[in-house]
Amino acid sequence: MIIKDVTNYLEKLAPLNYAEDFDNVGLLVGNYNTTVTGILVTLDTLEETIDEAIANKCNLIISFHPIIFGGLKKLNGNSYVERVVLKAIKNDIAIYATHTALDNSKNGVSAKMCEVLGLENNKILIPKKGIIKKLTTYVPLTNADELRAALFSANAGNIGNYDNCSFNTDGIGTYKGNEDSNPTLGEKGKNHSEKETKISVIFESKNEASILKALQKNHPYEEVAYEIVTTENVHQNIGMGMIGELPTAMNEKEFLLYLKKTMKTDCVRHSNFINKKIKKVAVLGGSGSFAISNAKRAGADAYVSADFKYHEFFKAENKILLADIGHYESEQFTKNLLVDYLTKKFSNFAVILSEKSTNPIYYI
After folding, report:
1. pLDDT at 61 over 90
2. pLDDT tens string 240-298
3. What phi, psi does 242 have (nearest 5°)?
4. 161: pLDDT confidence band, cut at 50, 70 and 90?
5. So what's the pLDDT on residue 74?
6. What is the pTM of this model?
7. Res 329 pLDDT > 90
8. What are the strands of the beta sheet with 235-250, ordered from one edge?
9. SS (HEC) of the chain
10. 61 closest CA partner among 87, 23, 100, 22
């Protein structure tokens, strides 16, 4: 098994195109064709993480956070990032990061938080834009059914709980081939009119390559006319954060104590109590202050995330209970999620959960 086999499987859970534009995900160090000896799963990649990988004979580290985030102009060991990268290269250890690709996955970071907290009826808090595209092409009437079927097989035409969706319009296509052409229908150098079907299908951007391959393979024309546009539609099953419901409503103090125990945190910073029962809970792993307004609009009684600044607690406005449980604490179960996912596919292979806590924050 090579690294590419592992990452291909990972990207079914968290496709890299789900990641935010600012992020740095994928294989950061190493070669996709390297044979894998073992996999170490961690939240962060530090020097001690490399040591742990060496001790366990793992040459692939699956990390949630990317060790390389901004550009590296030098590799001389003057920062912890440079030392980690140098040590990984020296010991032939590859590093792969999922980060916001997994954040935006329906079964990713926030879904794991919901599972740990026992939330039910969960849905995406901030559905992602820019993921749904539309393909339009033109094909002779006699070939339309065959081409549609090929596009559907390549995962085009999926909308929520529906598949094989398309819109079709019949019309007349015209063309004239030059002396180097080899038209399927008509003769080169002569104007030709053909009864055609205009086929439009939407698709997830991650499937664009396979859909274009199916289009080219199954379209009868020498030159295939098509267009692809990115729609403004949001994808209800892809995006940041989730919102769900507790099986039984709790008062605010009871909920915060439950949160502290369940999420294994030594500190919960929270907004003012407003004497409101907590039933509907929004969650988002990591730095989630940007989603406070989304949680309020969704009707959440409480919003659980991390890294809230002083003035951001005022945004509660006596409408919601804000709970900051810590960045590491909100994402700590992510590595368990990844280990469980990888083990299902590679059950006879060493997939090891890192035993090292990489939390840089301590409480007294």
Report:
1. yes
2. 999 999 999 999 999 999 999 999 999 999 999 999 999 999 999 999 999 999 999 99
3. -145, 160
4. confident
5. 87
6. 0.89
7. yes
8. 120-128, 235-250, 278-287, 302-306, 321-324, 269-270
9. CEHHHHHHHHHHHCCHHHCCCCCCCEEEECCCCCECCCEEEECCCCHHHHHHHHHCCCCEEEECCCCCCCCCCCCCCCCHHHHHHHHHHHCCCEEEECHHHHHCCCCCHHHHHHHHHCCEEEEEEEEECCCEEEEEEEEEHHHHHHHHHHHHHCCCCCECCECCCCEEEEEEEEECCCCCCCCCCCCCCCCEEEEEEEEEEEEEHHHHHHHHHHHHHHCCCCCCCEEEEECCCCEEEEEEEEEEEEEEEECHHHHHHHHHHHCCCCCCEECCCCCCCEEEEEEEEEECHHHHHHHHHCCCCEEEEECCCHHHHHHHCCCCEEEECCHHHHHCCHHHHHHHHHHHHCCCCCEEECCCCCCCCCCC
10. 87
Cα gap 236→105, rounded to integer Å? 11
CB-based burial label for 196 (10 Å; 0-12, 13-18, 19+): buried
**% of the chain at pLDDT higher than 70:** 100
Q: Which pLDDT does position 204 carry in this prediction?
A: 93
